[in-house]
Write a structure and sequence with these properties.
The chain is an alpha/beta fold and 405 residues long. It has 14 helices and 15 strands. Helix 2 runs antiparallel to helix 10 and helix 11 packs parallel to helix 14. Bound molecules: pyridoxal-5'-phosphate. Pyridoxal-5'-phosphate binds next to helix 4.
Length: 405
């Protein structure tokens, strides 16, 4: 563990209070290992040029590095062909790509889109907007009180003219790991195209898009050790080939005539303009780091630590932890009687403990939980049980501070 933590320079930065940083906001964004930071610097110092268009040495080197990163991401998620990986700014852009390029032209009045109650706004609002624009129906499959998806509600939602099913691999609020392969199989049986939001999937659980069987899988580089502004969309080749472009401009065309244009082959058809080249290369490096550690080991460590976190938090009087789960992604959300989540987060911050507070971009879920805001501690593989101890101590101190008298 000490060796792993040494790879992350920011974990050794003193906090404003002079103490050590306890970073428990990994679901928002992960910290970056030295190898990723170095790859970014090295790219700008030795390789920087625009990709695909140049004939000079640097352009070829940059293109090679960019395309190598695509191969790494494809291998990491079990995509059989690197052309099925489109670089995006993250999950939000990846889902919007599917919404605008696949769904918008295909949705008809009366069609149904199914999402789950635990979706992040990124995998909810685009579908709500597409449904409204097309006169289609958005159906939300509910969760059970233990924080898992209700399989019967999901099945009922599929009983109708369902065109598309969009669901999270791992919940950013509850930490629920959805049985995506099973859910996708059921959705496909009902005739739906499937979109999996993998923003909390790729950082925390081994991902194999072929085994999942989905049509699309979206991921965020910055949540899995990569740079901000990096991410990807996996899509089945035949789906991507049949889709119109998302953004128009340079890099994505084959021929531009005065009155019409033709498109480049995939994946370039979906990568208009100069991409985030350094970001993609940094993401490739992040993937290398995760593969060295082993996604299975990462998942076991994080799931055990998150389960331990939930158990320790439950011991604190007045704390209610959401989700009673056998395994978890990194997230554990809770409320503390008498202390607003924002006040708690601010108090803990003074102790050097970084957690998240608010609606966590999941207002439909929070309404179901009966709250408007929660506190969330979310772990990564570089977090320790000792840090969870500091969080729990901090919570006890917060209770005596806020609830005294
Ligand atoms: N989906 C889930 C489950 C998330 O947790 C997040 C980010 O918190 C997103 C989507 C959006 O990711 P991004 O902001 O990287 O596009």
């Amino acid at each position: 563990m000490e060796e792993i933590r040494q790879d992350f320079p920011i974990l050794h930065e003193p906090t404003p209070g002079g103490g050590r940083l306890v970073y428990l906001d990994n679901a928002a964004t992960s910290q970056k290992p030295r190898s990723v930071i170095d790859a970014l610097q090295d790219y700008y110092e030795t390789t920087n040029a625009n990709v695909h268009r140049g004939v000079h040495v640097l352009a070829e080197k940059a293109t090679q590095a960019y395309e190598d990163a695509r191969i790494k991401v494809a291998e990491f998620i079990g995509a059989p062909d690197p052309r099925s990986v489109i670089f995006t700014r993250g999950t939000t852009e990846a889902i919007n790509l599917v919404a605008w390029s696949w769904a918008r032209p295909r949705l008809r009045p009366g069609d149904r889109i199914v999402v789950t109650r635990m979706e992040h706004h990124s995998n909810f609002v685009p579908w709500q907007a597409m449904a409204r624009a097309a006169g289609a129906e958005l159906v939300i499959a509910d969760i059970r009180d233990d924080g898992t998806l209700d399989p019967d509600a999901f099945q009922r939602a599929l009983d109708g003219p369902v065109k598309l099913v969009a669901l999270a691999h791992v919940s950013n609020v509850l930490g629920t790991v959805n049985p995506v392969a099973d859910l996708v199989a059921r959705a496909r049986e009902a005739g739906a195209v499937t979109v999996v939001d993998g923003a909390q999937g790729t950082p925390h659980v081994p991902v194999d898009v072929e085994a999942i069987g989905c049509d699309f899988y979206a991921l965020s580089g910055h949540k899995m050790l990569g740079p901000t502004g990096s991410g990807a969309l996996y899509g089945r080749l035949e789906r991507l080939e049949a889709m119109e472009p998302f953004l128009y401009g340079g890099e994505m065309i084959s021929k531009v005539h005065d009155d019409h244009s033709t498109w480049a082959e995939i994946p370039h058809k979906f990568e208009a303009g100069t991409p985030h080249i350094a970001g993609a290369i940094g993401l490739g490096e992040a993937v290398d780091y995760l593969r060295r550690l082993g996604p299975d080991r990462v998942h076991r460590w994080e799931s055990d630590l998150a389960t331990y976190t939930a158990a320790r938090l439950r011991e604190v009087p007045g704390v209610r932890v959401f989700g009673d789960l056998p395994e978890r992604g990194g997230a554990v959300s809770f409320v503390t009687e008498g202390i607003h989540p924002h006040d708690l987060a601010q108090y803990l911050d003074q102790l050097g403990i970084a957690i998240r507070a608010g609606h966590l971009c999941a207002q439909p879920l929070l309404r179901r939980l009966g709250v408007t805001a929660v506190s969330r501690a979310s772990v990564a593989f570089y977090n320790t049980a000792e840090e969870i101890g500091l969080l729990v101590d901090g919570l006890h101190r917060a209770r005596s501070f806020f609830l005294r008298g």
